From TrEMBL:
It comes from Hydrogenophaga pseudoflava (Pseudomonas carboxydoflava). This is DUF2066 domain-containing protein. InterPro entries: DUF4844, DUF4844_sf. Keywords: Signal. It comes from the Bacteria. Residues 1-27 form the signal peptide.
């Protein structure tokens, strides 16, 4: 009769740790429920917002009938997204629901298409989607332009001095909520401030190198310009 062997306590502990690590975060019902409720509330706020109104970066006065039609299309999309069960609130499903709405805007003016893209990006933020993988830019511009920004940023980093790269590392921790506070702590008051934009001088003697925050339809972009050397941009 073969000897009966038992796993060691160390092996049992290791097995338990590995099993715990393999449990996905969405398996926590409380966390999943809280995230779903936050998303529903964000979608409710989005639906309640009046859309396609004259505002910075969208200086258009639509006929009210056109505005209401465009608003209804976008709000219906948001309602369709709101009805998705958590298991289907995935990037492919969300972007797939965008496509019929984008098709409806094919005959619209360019300014109205741009504003639609802004609303779609808001919905992406609600669902934690960082990129449309070229869907939006291909529809709006006829080509995937997402790689252009990455290429320009790579060129900018290559053109930076060692000190500028150190600053860039510090800026990587900036996000939408703390961006202005961080730049004020580093560079003081903005040297320029206008509706939707603020600019700080990186160089004390002049404005040959500036950092700016550009707010457009709820999205915030960090823009670093060094005259004649590079332009670096990152959406926060």
């Amino acid at each position: 009769m073969p000897a009966c062997t038992f796993p060691s306590r160390r092996a049992l502990l290791l097995s338990a740790l590995l099993s715990a690590a393999s449990i996905p975060s969405w398996a926590d019902p409380a966390a999943q429920s809280s995230a779903a409720e936050d998303r529903r509330q964000a979608l409710d706020r989005f639906i309640a917002k009046k859309k396609f109104v004259n505002e910075p970066f969208y200086r258009v006065d639509l006929k009210e009938a056109d505005r209401l039609r465009y608003e209804a299309w976008v709000n219906q999309l948001a309602r369709d997204l709101r009805r998705l069960p958590p298991s289907r609130q995935t990037k492919p499903v969300v972007l797939g629901l965008f496509k019929p709405v984008m098709k409806k805007f094919d005959p619209a003016e360019g300014e109205d298409q741009d504003r639609l893209v802004g609303y779609l990006e808001e919905l992406m933020d609600i669902f934690g989607i960082e990129s449309s993988d070229g869907l939006l830019s291909s529809w709006r511009h006829g080509a995937d332009t997402s790689g252009l920004l990455e290429a320009r940023n790579a060129q900018a980093v290559a053109a930076m001095t060692p000190d500028e790269r150190v600053l860039l590392e510090r800026l990587q921790g900036i996000h939408k909520a703390n961006a202005e506070e961080t730049l004020r702590s580093l560079f003081g008051a903005p040297v320029f401030e206008d509706e939707g934009s603020k600019m700080w001088s990186v160089t004390a003697a002049d404005r040959s190198s500036t950092l700016g925050l550009l707010e457009r339809w709820g999205a915030l972009t960090l823009l670093w310009q060094a005259n004649g050397r590079f332009i670096y941009a990152r959406r926060l």
